[in-house]
Amino acid sequence: MTPPRRRADATENRSRIIEAAQALITRQDELRLNEVAKRAGVGQGTLYRHFPTREDLLAEVYRHDVDELVVAAPTLLAEHKPFEALALWFRRVADYARVKRGVFSAVTSGVQRDLSGHSLGPIGDALQTLLAAGKADGTIRSDVDVRDVILLIGFLSHIEEAEADERAHHVLELILDGLRRRADDS
Amino acid sequence: MTPPRRRADATENRSRIIEAAQALITRQDELRLNEVAKRAGVGQGTLYRHFPTREDLLAEVYRHDVDELVVAAPTLLAEHKPFEALALWFRRVADYARVKRGVFSAVTSGVQRDLSGHSLGPIGDALQTLLAAGKADGTIRSDVDVRDVILLIGFLSHIEEAEADERAHHVLELILDGLRRRADDS
DNA sequence: ACCTGAACACCGTTCAAGT
DNA sequence: ACCTGAACACCGTTCAAGT
Hints:
The structure is a homodimer of 186-residue chains. Chain A has ten helices and no strands. By secondary structure, the first copy, chain A, is mostly helical. Chain A has two domains: 52 residues, Arc Repressor Mutant, subunit A; 127 residues, Orthogonal Bundle (Tetracycline Repressor, domain 2). The longest helix of chain A has 20 residues. Chain A is elongated. The mean pLDDT of chain A is 89. Chains A and B meet through helix 9 and helix 10 of A and helix 9 and helix 10 of B. The structure holds a DNA duplex (19 and 19 nucleotides).
């Protein structure tokens, strides 16, 4: 019962594909799959063998970044009050969205896919933790859920880098104000 | 100096193209330009002659709908308090977005294009009127501008029809709460 | 002045042949 | 078991030839 070992060349090809995709996506927004294969030095079929869909590839490309956001949630909660932790987490998401335009789409489409599978997924769970803490201490409205927030911060995928610099934080403030629980709420 | 009259067949073709595009877009999200030309019974070149870009065509397809939204703003303001007028206008935008998925993209991309030309455009002006009224009577934060609001309601273009039914109004409420001016604001 | 539609470009995706 | 790359499909866009 030895584990079905992957052939060495397959592992190597997989890494090369991811690296090529990363290199290409940082210099422009669109990602041409044939270009990825060419740069990685593999046939197009090899790309499809490793990553059946474009999303599979992008998920892998942004894996580390998404992980960092996921890990940040409990860390922030340990060091700040819930509402402040959420605000700081938003800020972090905005920073990622500014530099790596695709992270955010990967995050949201990931959440969407996971939602249909009756699971929140890693990012959804992280956000859920933040929201629950804020509801528990009465600083966040009780009628807000993860999907609401994902939809609201989706504006980050609509703006260019320059506009994000001057406007993203402000719009996030407006959103936070909408999520805040008021004295007269039930 | 008679106006340079358009040839009758050109006018006719233009109408047929718009009608074909409307018919096709109501039955599915994407719009294939060659398909539009085929259904309209014109050559592809004719389509490009009348509508150099895809956006030009879409703007024309949704022209009536956008006009209705523009006209609604002053009407609502005449009959309701500013904040309520804004809430009702949001509701109307959401209703359009639900049925005609593309209206909203046309609206936002229109605003974006107009913004770069240092003008708000028709929809931007309508929204500007609503915001100004709310700021004047102290119900809307003074640090909010048209672009902020357009970005916030952009979530409408991310959701499917079923989800819009159960969630759009709620998320719009959250946004309105974020735009509302508080007692302690400066 | 306007129209037609063949043709080109571009990119995603598949699959027969190979190792 | 995995890889290659020719080939096909699809769609946007152009342009020479026509009326």
